[in-house]
Amino acid sequence: MINNSNAQYEVQNITGDIDITFEDVINFWMTLFPEIKSVSELEELLAKSSGTELKDLEKCYFNNNEANKIQDIFTFNESQIPNFNNTLDEIQKIYQWTYFFKPVICQYTGDLYEFIQKINILENKDEIFSQSVLSVVGNLYTISYKVLVLETNIARMEGRLIGETSKEKAQYFINVLLKDESYLRKIYTEYPELIRLLDLSAKNTFSYIKEIITNTYKEIKSLDKKFNEGKGIGKISRIQLGDGDTHNNGKTVATIVFSTGIKVAYKPRTLDLESKFSDFVDWINAQDIPQFKPLKSCKIHTIDGAGWMEFVFHEECDNEQQVADFYKRTGQLLTILYILNAKDFHYENLIAQGEYPILIDLETLLHPEMLIGDSEDTSAEAKAFKIINDSVKSVALLPTQVINHKNEKVLDVGGLCGETEQEAPFKSVIIKNPDTDEIKIEEYFGTIQPKENNPSIKGTKISSEKFVTEIKDGFTVAYKWILENKQAFAKKITELFKDCMCRVIIRPTNVYCQLLNTSYHPDLLRNSTDRYVYLHRIGLTGNAYEIMPSELTDMINGDIPYFIMPVSKNTIQNGRKEELQYLYKNSTLDIILNKIEQISQKDLVRQIAFINLSYMDKLKKGLKSSTNISFQEQSAKITIDKELLINTSKSIGDYILDRSIVGEYKGSVDRTWIGTIEIANMLSFVTAVGNDIYNGNSGIALYLAYLGAVTGEEKYSKAALESIEPVIKYLDKISNITHEKIGGFSGICGWFYALFHIGNLLNNKKLIDYVKDNIKIIKNFAGITQNHDVISGYSGALGALLSIHDKTDDESFKHILIDICLDIYKAINDNIIVLHEKNCITWGKEGYVGYSHGNCGVEPQLMRLYNIVGNIDILDTIKKSILYSRCMFDKERKNWKKELSKDDFCYGWCHGAPGILLSRLMLLQAGYRDEEIMQEIQDAIETTKKHSFGIDYSLCHGDIGNLLILKYAAKVLKDDKLGLQCIATLNEFLYKYFSNNWGTAEFTETENSCLMVGPAGIGYGLLQFYDADLMPNILTFE
Fold first, then answer.
1. In terms of pTM, does the model score above 0.85?
2. What is the Cα–Cα distance from 933 to 919, expressed in whole angstroms?
3. Fewer Cβ within 10 Å of end Cβ, the chain: N or C?
4. Contacts (Cβ under 8 Å, ≥6 apart) of 879
5. What is d(CA 67, CA 760) in angstroms, rounded to the nearest whole number?
6. Is residue 363 helix, strand or coil?
7. How wide is the angle at C-alpha 13 spanned by C-alphas 11 and 17, nearest 5°?
8. Cα–Cα distance, 920 to 926 (Å, whole number)
């Protein structure tokens, strides 16, 4: 524990002396970690991250004497540099606070100036010197602008600024105060950590510029030969440091322009990977692979610790065939990058040079396993995430989204994306009123301009989603050749790369960037210990603590942490070549060789599926799923081929089992699948499917249990129990259930529904008892706002719980369920929106009408509750809700508007006539009667028959769901003719659509096994026709 010393210390600053205690300091530090609730937690974080103790920080904090170092800075001498102030004046036109940095940079400019005068490969030495100073000032500006904005405003409020106007006062600050040594000394003394960072940045940047010049001078003959065929590359006319991240003492990629006009990129690392990749490209181009398009790589010259790469310019394509060839080559590259376990090939690492995609940054060409979660976790879900993180998705060449979950803004950074202007998902800062004394910093969402990674014709960029077929073709060509030539491929990879070093990305770069940018806040620059403590926020990421001291060292010095490892070893080094006490299980080469060994036809299909899923949003929908069938109106007596139903259902079940991922958790086998979930403005995100009925384990497990019960085949029943295991695992470990949704199809009540009915169906008392023992956690949702709907809200929760209530014989359990249901009813009632002009009610700002999200889903579940508890207020709520849906009816269309403010019409269970038909049928069956309900049912049946088939196959909004609704209508209305029509339509679906499409790309080249929008729903529907009494109807929460 800390020593809560109340000893007072006198801290010097520009405004006077302030007496503070170490307790005050700790209280300030606690504000930097809002996630942490106690000082002991802060101590634990510091200890885990760096081994730091608070007692040591106390000494550092109050013994932080930088005064002598700051005074030394003002002993500079600029007289040896001709016209130096003229140089600064020119730079000041770009960076207005340039003179604030003069004492810092003058420590090093004399040495640089003398160095430049001795080098004879510089075209204009004065220009190179000016460029160098400009680069340094730009770096210093980034670190210090927050302080200088603050100090401008402080000077204004203290009346230090002289001038008639706001602009004149700002100029006084810039041209008088920042040139006043006594004022500068005070500011420098106020912010010793800032000055340390500025000094270090200036020193490192000037040193790096000298390194670039020296190495280029030494290698000029080799550069002549490599980049200009020995004709002479010329003198250096310009050196431009990159705007990218700095590593290893302020180094970043630089561009060198020679007097001949030739440009090269200078990289402060050995370019062995790039060199060997160039050799690899030559090798694979020579293999005479059928249908393989030759690839290109960059020209490279490398030495120990540095290298030069040709500057790749974007070139247009002449025609669409060249564009197609570009994307086929990209598919080939994607295969190679996937098998090499490459990462981080985003839109800035690819240039479209005509019909050739050129990779320009290959430091992550080979990569060890990514650190995701607990490396010892062998559960099915952990394996699913590993498959995703080892897939083509992880290369980042395909659409790859950066998401701000707070505002749901999305940026696509994929190597084949960003062809149009995008809004940044995270706020940047802009300096407002920069030429006034009321200067301030404001946040805004910046604009990301298109890059040069996509091909173009006549100035128009051609998007990759138009050429997904070509990408898949290229991928398949390369993959199949490697599959057939594993040994030769593995041998060549080993031969080329075994002695290389590769970069290791342990955390996303933006995590480091955000920490560094915030660490330049004035409050963290007055004492180095404050900033040091703040940077321990890296520890909140919660893994790889062994490398955090190295990460902290880099960030303390203003650098992005950098890690490398030998390709043939499992040891990791930092940018200072220090070996760290952190080991991967396998070397990168072993991982790649194992990947080569494991590739297969089945894996090829899965990777093609990942490519399709990556483009699902850009193409507005996944692979085509239109069935093109129509409802069959003939009513001739027809029978169901039950053997066909069973065989088809088993075929679907076998497909689902084949696509499953099996793991182990605490001695129990568990099972899951890969799929997509919708986040951030309906964006599809590839992930393990999760727990829900709609698209997750609960829904798939329901189908498998149903299939097992009907067929008597244990493999399906066993798989159902394994599939529900992750749900139990999650429920057992979740700390705050209210972070979940409460609903039936997407939510915790749906999980309990699945657990109970699987237990009931398979006579598994353990599952039933689990539900009884844990159902009360739903009470924790009391007072927590959720939505009202069937999918994820209160209505679905009500339906799921009432279904359990209807199927259990345990009276005490029934009472518990009804108690919870009454709480849910209260929440539904509390969230009513009254539409006074229509004398009716709805829920939610959209005013949805349909079954899954609107009033028509609420009404039948409330009616079920009313029949149990007899509360007349519930019936009154139902009647007012029905009035709303009726006022949204369009007589001409014989359908209901989707929502209050739009005239959209839909035709599925989720929205539109079929779902509203289901709602009215449920009300009718539950005993509700009024003079309009039968006509509504007939209208809805007519519309469903006419408009709701041939669009999609799914339970949610497709043929199977709509057929089950009409089948239910035939049962409730005792309409034999409608029942026969449903059977005829089912046959049409099976013979015309399913038999022709099952086993094709529509089903195999995707990752979708789920219940509501996947093949499990087809199988579920078929089993409902086979034996409806065995399993309750999921669409109604029967």
1. yes
2. 10
3. N
4. none
5. 77
6. coil
7. 55
8. 10
Parallel, antiparallel, or unpaired for β 501-503 and 460-461? unpaired
Q: Please tell me whether residue 504 adopts helix, strand or coil conformation.
A: coil
Which DSSP string do the residues of 695-722 spell out, in sequence order? TSHHHHHHHHHHHHHHH--HHHHHHHHH
The pLDDT score that the predictor gives to residue 666 is 85
Q: How many residues does the chain have?
A: 1038
CA distance 869 to 822: 9
Residue 902: what pLDDT? 85
The full 3-state SS of 817-878, as one line of letters, equals HHHHHHHHHHHHHHCCEEECCCCEEECCCCCCCCCCCCHHHHHHHHHHHHHHHCCHHHHHHH
Q: Give the three-state DSSP class for 791.
A: coil
What is the model's pLDDT at position 80?
Answer: 76
What is d(CA 988, CA 265) in angstroms, rounded to the nearest whole number? 63
Place of tokens 């709609």: 694
Looking at 343-393, list the stretches that DSSP marks H as alpha helix, in order from N- to C-terminal side: 380-389
912: DSSP letter: B
What's the rounded Cα separation, in Å, for the pair 992 and 1006?
22
- Cα–Cα distance measured from residue 913 to residue 892, given in angstroms and rounded to the nearest whole number: 13
List, in sequence order, every residue forming a beta bridge with 325; answer none if it has no partner.
none
CA pseudo-torsion sign 599, 602, 606, 607: positive
State the residue for tokens 């030539």: 485
525: which 2 tokens? 């620059």
Bridge partner list, 907: 912
**Host H or E run for residue 933:** helix 933-947
Name the residue among 300, 312, 311 with its Cα closest to residue 272.
300
State which residues of the chain have pLDDT below 70. Answer: 1-18, 64-67, 77-79, 244, 371-375, 620-624, 680-682, 782-783
Q: What pLDDT, on a 0 to 100 scale, did the predictor assign at position 5?
A: 38
Q: Which residue has the tokens 């409730």?
A: 972
The CA distances from residue 816 to 208, 341, 734, 737, 827, in Å, are 72, 53, 22, 18, 17
Which residues partner with 257 through β-bridges?
238, 263
Q: Which residues contact 881 (CB under 8 A, 6 or more apart)?
A: 840, 841, 842, 855, 858, 859, 862
* Two structure tokens written together for 348: 């800035």
How many whole angstroms separate alpha carbon 326 and alpha carbon 461? 13
> CA gyration radius for the chain?
34
Q: Tell me, what's the pLDDT at 402?
A: 86
User: What would the two tokens of residue 869 be?
Assistant: 């508890």
* Distant-in-sequence, close-in-space partners of 187: CB < 8 Å, separation ≥ 6: 14, 100, 147, 151
Look at residue 67 in the predicted model and tell me its pLDDT: 65
Strand partners, 840: 835
What is the C-alpha to C-alpha distance for residues 178 and 184, in angstroms, rounded to an integer?
A: 6
963: buried, middle or exposed (CB in 10 Å: 19+, 13-18, 0-12)? buried
CA dihedral for 514, 516, 519, 522, sign (positive or negative): negative
Contacts for 566-572 with beta carbons within 8 Å, 24 or more apart?
A: 566/499, 566/500, 566/501, 567/366, 567/497, 567/498, 567/499, 567/500, 567/501, 567/502, 568/498, 568/499, 570/368, 572/504, 572/547
Write out the two tokens for 984: 């005829």
Tell me how far apart the alpha carbons of residues 870 and 926 are, in angstroms, rounded to a whole number: 13
**What local confidence, expressed as pLDDT, does residue 12 receive?**
39
Two tokens, residue 238: 């310009």
pLDDT at 781: 81
Element (H, E) at 10: strand 8-13
Report how far residue 362's alpha carbon sits from residue 700's, in angstroms, rounded to the nearest whole number.
41
Angle between helices 811-830 and 855-869 (to 10 degrees): 140
Residue with tokens 């020593």: 3
Which 3 state secondary structure label does DSSP give 374?
coil
